Amino acid sequence: MTDAEMTMPGDGAGAVDGAAGGNGSPARDHTVWERLSREVIHRFYTGDVVWLSERLDGDFAGIGAQPEQYRISTQGILFNAIALPDLVFTSERYEWVASCDGLTVVMGQYEAYTAPDQGIVFADTQRFTMVWRGEPAHARLVHWHVSNPLRAAEEGEQFPYRAGAAGLRAVSLMAEQKRYRRELRIQDVAGAIHRLLPFDLRYLSVDGHNTVLHMTDGSTYTVHEGLSSFLAANGLDGPDGGFVRIHRGYVVNALYVRSVSDKVVMTDGMELPLPSRRQSEIREAIAAARRD
Fold it and tell me: Which domain holds residue 82?
């Protein structure tokens, strides 16, 4: 294979971080492959086996991170897509490497933690390589190599030393929000007293002069207090609490944010409005709440 036969990244080649996109023809636009690889990762962790089965080549063979996963078949991938927990991604990078003879190589890494409502807690950084066959519109994945496991800590394992910094922050934030001393004592508009943990509070919204607390179990509590005043009175307005104001009428628990684009998408699928001029600012604030 000569240099002329292989297309390699030049000075103008970039990588997709998160959901970044690009312009250009599908055959030459490297970000098309990066976005496609990102979609595989996200479809996998949301258990979309129908989509995955349509993208895996008939000759697919994967290599997993666990010792027993030297060779993974299509059925193994689909089984794991159903079995593995839902993840929240804190950092993602996808990079086109090379295209030759109808094959394209994409590599990257992502940091993620289990969605708070999954019942288990773990976080880690995972690296991968994907090999695609064909053009983007009809490409099939022929190989997927995962370099390190993304799993719960084993008995006796020193989890903090294995997890990345982003994972540690997310896990520590979960623990902090669950601590008894962080319990919130609120009085709703009907006069009833409730004791709540910040961890169980998904987001807050404004309703006139009141504040509505939206809980992870679907329940809501309305308190006769403005949003800013409520946050300050309950210690939720500081940089370490994990709550971020995304709009004058909304504050979110960063642990439950799945993505930020022209809106904020929560882990339960709820979409909250976001001023377009503040997208970068809010994205950075949520990342800081989970990573710093």
Answer: 3-171
pLDDT by residue (tens digit) across 24-41?
444 457 899 999 999 999
Residue 64 to residue 129: CA distance in whole angstroms = 11
**CATH number of the domain residue 108 falls in:** 3.10.450.50
Tokens of 82: 């159903």
- 291 Cβ partners below 8 Å, 6+ apart? 90, 91, 165, 166, 169, 170
Q: Does residue 199 sit in helix, strand or coil?
A: helix
Cβ atoms within 10 Å of 97's Cβ, excluding its own: 18
Do the domain assignments include residue 179?
no
Amino acid at 50: V
Same domain, 68 and 97: yes
| Residue among 7, 39, 88 at smallest CA distance from 257 | 88
Strands of the 210-215 sheet, one edge to the other: 220-223, 210-215, 201-207, 250-253, 243-247
Rounded to two decimals, what is the model's pTM?
0.60
